[in-house]
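no rush on this but wanted to send it before i forget. theres a chain ive been looking at and ive put its sequence and its fold in token form underneath. i want to understand how the tokens follow from the sequence so walk me through it. thanks a lot i owe you, the record is right below:
>
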Amino acid sequence: MRTINILRTMAVAGAVLLVPSMMSAQANKPMSFAVFGGASVPMGDASDAFNTGYTVGGSMDMRNSSRLGLRADASYGSMSIKAPGVDGSNKTIGANLDAVVWTSKKPSAVSPYVTGGASYAHYDLVQGVPTESHWGFNAGAGLDFAMGRIPARIDARYTQISTGDGTSMKTVPLTFGIRF
């Protein structure tokens, strides 16, 4: 619980520090969007219970004229259950609010970045199992690049969501997205 409070405090502090400088950079197109999809790979104990699934979603980046920015994204994912005789899946609706640090001050043809922040997930398992909503964190890296005239992104993140009973759901979403 203490870790979650620290993550929330860090997210609020990051927003307070970054938003004013982003607002002054309106001329540099400080806001962009992306749609993405890819694989959601279960890790740790989750890999014993679930098969690799999929994730789809969208994101919004706010970037000032420096290398710093904020990213908010929402996603939907599903991973089928491995247990013999159980037909079902873990359907997840999630959201992240992350700080992003790009390696260059201005967008370029290839721009690596690192990202991390707070995560929220709502899990809907098989019938008869109550839905759950929990907080956690994510951290990862990616690459903004151009495919001809199409701006794109690849991204890999480690996500850990506390499940409230002393365990956590750990996944690594590997995504490809189109930016606009």
Q: What stands out?
A: The two ends are 37 Å apart (CA to CA). The longest strand covers residues 132-147. Confidence is low (pLDDT under 50) at residues 16-27.
